[in-house]
Amino acid sequence: MALELTIKPDDIRLLCDRVEAAQEGAYAIHKLTDDYPSMTIDDGYAVQAELRQRYLAKGHQLAGWKAGLTSRAKMEQMGVHVPSIGFLTDKMARTESIGIKTSEMVHPRVECEVAFVTKKDLQGPDCTLQDVLDATDYVLPAVEIIDSRFSGFKFDLASVVADNGSSARYVTGKVRLNPRDLDLTKVGVVMKKNGEVVASGESSAVLGHPAEAIAMLVNILAEQDEMLPAGSFVMSGGITEAIPVQAGDAITAEFQILGQVSMTFVA
Ligand code: 0L1
Ligand code: MG
């Protein structure tokens, strides 16, 4: 199955130019559908695929994938009705010990996620939650730093998909667990900003079970004639709404069973 495009290849490249420049220059643009009102989600994935090719051609390594907008809280916060996917590169990975630069982003927000690492290939279009659990090597805690390139975080699904699901940075914690050793629907998480609780939730908020989000991601990949190879790192989506951060902030995400992920932000 291939993407069905309504936008001409030249315009896909032009839209990719806009998104790429905004990502690399850390500036806000207006949503793409303002100029291309008929743009569809498939068109958005075509822009995202072009963006991925461009980053890989520049020497970035594909580090994994992310499911996004996978909780009711996130969908309501952003006013969209279905989840999305995006790609992750090695240039987006950050560690707990080094301050994350806000000057490289437009208006970053943080969200707590359960991440998966696979040990078997996963192929859509009929990938199920059980297929994902059978293919999972381990799960680990993660914080995604999203950064929509659209002014005021105002967009629609086609635009946000083109902007690679607002992917910007991510940090993982140290604990790795076999998915059979915990109930993945009952991982509670509390996020603190500068010591104050700013968000909390439970992993069942992610489509009922975070592995369901990974199955959804595999099935969306299949629509682009792609599969998820063994050894992939995949984030399953924010458990709570995303919280804005600025230089000087310290974030700690405390996951039940999966431990803690901490980071600081600098200018
Ligand atoms: O990771 C995600 O849930 C995708 C977020 C895309 C929309 C946003 O920028 O909030
Ligand atoms: Mg996310």
TrEMBL record:
Domain annotation Fumarylacetoacetase-like C-terminal: ranges: 106-265
Gene3D superfamilies linked to this entry: Fumarylacetoacetase-like, C-terminal domain
Domain of life: Bacteria
Lyase as UniProt keyword: yes
Keyword terms, alphabetized: Lyase
Pfam families reported in the protein's UniProt record: FAA_hydrolase
GO cellular component: cytoplasm
GO molecular function: 2-oxopent-4-enoate hydratase activity
NCBIfam families per the UniProt record, alphabetical: catechol_dmpH
Name of the molecule in the record: 2-oxo-3-hexenedioate decarboxylase
Organism field: Polynucleobacter cosmopolitanus
